[in-house]
């Protein structure tokens, strides 16, 4: 269930915290270039003085815009919207308001367990290196909470803070373009990657034409185990979203369709994602993929879990080197 509220949000979180934390709430990755889509993965390592976490509230700073939170099974998702201080361009549309706080509510994360809370947004409007703080509050039932909202002053050691806010360091968009730092040249692309009984290899993405917002690519998955698995999802900071697609023949016409429910990876078999069959579609790409670059992706499998992989960008369709 998702609720959306649109009041202007008053600034500030309570400065007190119930109990002293021994491990901070931080982001899995805390550095990214401006004008890119960033997936903020908040790591929650403990509860409040031994009590289970039942709600997580994350305030979104100015410049982290067009945010979309990831729902969590067993938790209610609340999106609070408000006005931005500036106006931002969203694929040609001027936007001056959007999500400014995300709340995951009504769950139960025991103190002895660890979990992550994810929200994706665009880092926009930065011309110099900037540290963005995301003040976050953990609620534990009706009488316990931990507030992560402290930001170091100039020259202050952040490690000296008792309850530092999770932060992202935004670096300027350089001559490498909007996706600088999101993969680099082909030489930085990974070789085969093992994930349990699975081996991922043969990754490739086609270069895109100027102005294009949709790109295609794929890879090969070999299941060397005795149990079936399934590719559930693919994510990439280089695209707004990544969809799983297939090509089918319909009335003597080859058509593309989106796959719901993932792609089966049967035990002992190899599944190839490539043009003309099963493949990946990168949607809402802000900067077209250029030959010689590489595109990072995160693959999620039903049983094997998650793994990071890099797809090198080859020549555009119809322009392969002879």
From TrEMBL:
Residues 24-170 form the YncI copper-binding domain. It comes from the Bacteria. Residues 1-23 form the signal peptide. It comes from Sinorhizobium saheli. The keyword Transmembrane does not apply. This is YncI copper-binding domain-containing protein. Keywords: Signal. InterPro entries: LpqE-like, Lxx211020-like, PCuAC_sf, UCP037139, YcnI-copper_dom, YcnI-like_sf. The keyword Signal applies. It holds the Pfam family PCuAC.
